[in-house]
Design brief:
By secondary structure, the protein is mostly helical. It contains 2 helices and no strands. Helix 1 crosses helix 2. The radius of gyration is 46 Å and the shape is rod-shaped.
Length: 120
Amino acid sequence: MNGWVARLSRAVLLILVGAMAGIWAATGHFRPLLDDQQDKAAQCSAARDNLAGLAQEQGKALGDLTLATNARQAGADKAVGDAKASAGIDYAAANRLQQEHTGGDQCAAASSIIDKELGL
């Protein structure tokens, strides 16, 4: 039985040595590939973080542009309202002058204005 145990222990030892040699060879072969993939993963992570920061900056810039647009629109609406109010006064004065020019007849005033616009 001693011979059988010795042969078995040598076989197990040989298998262990072969497994260790295989692991060592595989590690030596795949280590550069693993390192390369880790470098690429780090680059992708850095690029993702950079893009996230840029997207955040763009979102803030778009928000600022929206606020500026709303402020300009409010200013434009106020300017249009002021212009309409001012034009209403000027229109009434011009209409009154035109009526005085045509003797107070509104139809004659309108006809005169239309003829003038048409170049007749």
